[in-house]
Amino acid sequence: MHQVMEWNEDVSDAVKRELGSHQVCLMNVLGSPGAGKTSTIVELIARLRDKYRIGVIEGDITGTIDAETIDKLGLPVVQLDTDGACHIEAMSIQHILPHFNLDELDVLMVENIGNLVCPAEFNIGESFRLALLSIPEGDDKVEKYPLIFSTSDALALNKYDLKEYFGFDDARVERNAKAANPDISVFRVSSRTGEGLDELTAWVDGKIAAALGRA
Ligand code: MG
Ligand code: ZN
Fold first, then answer.
1. Which of 16, 26, 69, 195 is deepest in the core (most CB within 10 A)?
2. Cβ 69 vs Cβ 98: under 8 Å
3. How far is the CA of 110 from the centre of ligand 1 (A)?
4. Domain limits for position 187
5. Strand pairing of 107-111 and 154-158?
6. Residues with Cβ within 5 Å of ion ligand 2?
7. Closest ligand relative to 132 C-alpha
8. Ligand nearest to the CA of 92
9. pLDDT band for position 75 (50/70/90)?
């Protein structure tokens, strides 16, 4: 994976080892503000919580709105307040891990800061990355922000039910995403209508199972 900061890479590896020693895998969820990161995480939790013990790290520049949403689900959630920083670094994850009982978890879902740029530059000990792009953001984003798409394992085109209203060219996005990253899986989803969520969940399930050696 592309890595800009060597020091961050070392800490990312340490986080991954620590999680691995407790049989926990980490999913890094990236996307713009309003792309639907929180609601997608909520939908994935609803479909996977009977199978895996899930914890959540909610990254936000400030405030606890998303963390409160997850907290209502009755799962362990820790708010990572970046105090203005526009991305999460591996060291922040390392500092937050002691707040969880890792022996009682299988999966940590991390909602990164809403931003298509620098969150993609920092590995945070993840086993895999899920990028979200919502239809209202426009179909030119892969060309404008290639790194987030070239480093993610899957791309979910969220709010897909709005496609007709925005004239969103999903074939263009998929073509560009696969040009940047031939291995990327592309899903068309809507957390409002439920479209595509079962397919996305099956993919996430497969990645978790593989990371935990249960595939
Ligand atoms: Mg959110
Ligand atoms: Zn940043």
1. 26
2. no
3. 10
4. 2-211
5. unpaired
6. 86-87, 118
7. 1
8. 2
9. very high
pLDDT tens-digit readout, 29-47: 999 999 999 999 999 999 9
CATH of residue 102:
3.40.50.300
Average pLDDT over residues 62-85: 88
Of the bound ligands, which one is closest to the alpha carbon of residue 114?
Answer: 1
Q: pLDDT value at position 7?
A: 86
Residue 141 C-alpha to ligand 2 middle, in angstroms? Answer: 18
Q: What pTM did the predictor assign? A: 0.95
Handedness of CA 44, 28, 53, 203 (dihedral sign): positive
Distance of CA 36 from the midpoint of ligand 2 (Å): 19
Q: How many domains does the chain have?
A: 1
Q: Is the pLDDT of residue 65 over 90?
A: no
In whole angstroms, what is the distance from residue 134 CA to residue 40 CA? 11
Report CA(26)–ligand 2 centroid distance (Å): 20
Nearest listed ligand to the Cα of residue 118 = 2
